[in-house]
């Protein structure tokens, strides 16, 4: 009996380790490949991941359906993906790497531009509509759900009727460019908080900032 009880207690840490879901994360920055898109508002997902790569000192490698980099923080592995499928097919790359790396949906975060938020405003949500964003629309179609974590970076809506595409595919203006470094630094802190603290505490700390 003593040996049996001892075996139960000695195996407990191993069971906790095996069932702990907070070990591997996938951060997907949305954007379009190609130099003509590099500095556009629509590519803010790529740019935030580039800032994170600089902060955490990792690099991206060309892989199937995108560019992938990774880093570790407090026992957690964070995979960062920039899809090469262009915005309208973002879901294909996201799903492939989620399944390949066996990452649960609650540990996935999509970074996207949002015209419904003023420039530089950060907002984390766990569900919602695609808001007319083609990248989110494809992700929703591929995953067959609108419930997934998305980090929305405000780009504002300073465009006239019928000029939305030109606006999001346009480059940052001078005032916006001057603020991007600080906004990207804050964005990196949001991502780190998402990984270490979870979605709800991160929402409470960063939403609207």
Question: Would you mind describing this structure in some detail?
Answer:
With 209 residues, the protein is of the alpha/beta class. Helix content is 43%, strand content 20%. The longest helix is centred in the last third of the chain and has 24 residues, at 174-197. The N and C termini lie far apart (58 Å).
In short:
This protein is an alpha/beta fold and 209 residues long. It contains seven helices and seven strands. Helix 2 (44-56) crosses helix 6 and helix 3 (90-100) packs across helix 4 (134-143).
Please describe the topology of this protein.
Layout: H1 2-19, E1 24-29, H2 44-56, E2 61-63, E3 66-73, E4 76-83, H3 90-100, E5 108-114, E6 122-125, H4 134-143, E7 149-154, H5 164-168, H6 174-197, H7 199-206
Helix pairs in contact: 2-6, 3-4, 6-7
Q: How far is the first residue's CA from the last residue's CA?
A: 58 Å
General shape: globular
Give the DSSP E fraction (strand runs of 2 or more residues): 15-25%
Biggest beta sheet summary: 7 strands, mixed
Low-confidence stretches: 4-19
Task: Sum up the structure in keywords.
single chain, 209 residues, globular, alpha/beta, 20% strand
């Amino acid at each position: 009996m003593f040996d049996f009880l001892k075996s139960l207690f000695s195996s407990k840490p191993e069971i906790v380790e095996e069932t702990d879901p907070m070990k591997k994360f996938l951060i997907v920055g949305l954007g379009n490949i190609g130099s003509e898109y590099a500095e556009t508002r629509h590519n803010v997902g790529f740019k935030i991941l580039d800032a994170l790569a600089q902060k955490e000192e990792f690099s991206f490698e060309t892989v199937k359906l995108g560019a992938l980099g990774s880093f570790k923080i407090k026992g957690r592995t964070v995979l960062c993906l920039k899809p090469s499928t262009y915005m309208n097919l973002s879901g294909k790359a996201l799903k492939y790497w989620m399944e390949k790396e066996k990452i649960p949906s609650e540990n996935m975060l999509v970074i996207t531009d949002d015209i419904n938020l003023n420039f530089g405003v950060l907002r984390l949500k766990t569900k919602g509509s695609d808001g007319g964003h083609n990248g989110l629309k494809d992700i929703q179609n591929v995953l067959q759900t609108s419930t997934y974590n998305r980090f929305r970076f405000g780009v504002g809506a300073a465009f006239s009727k019928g000029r939305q595409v030109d606006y999001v595919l346009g480059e940052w203006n001078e005032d916006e460019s001057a603020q991007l470094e600080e906004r990207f630094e804050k964005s990196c802190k949001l991502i780190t908080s998402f990984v270490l603290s979870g979605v709800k505490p991160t929402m409470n700390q960063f939403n609207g900032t």
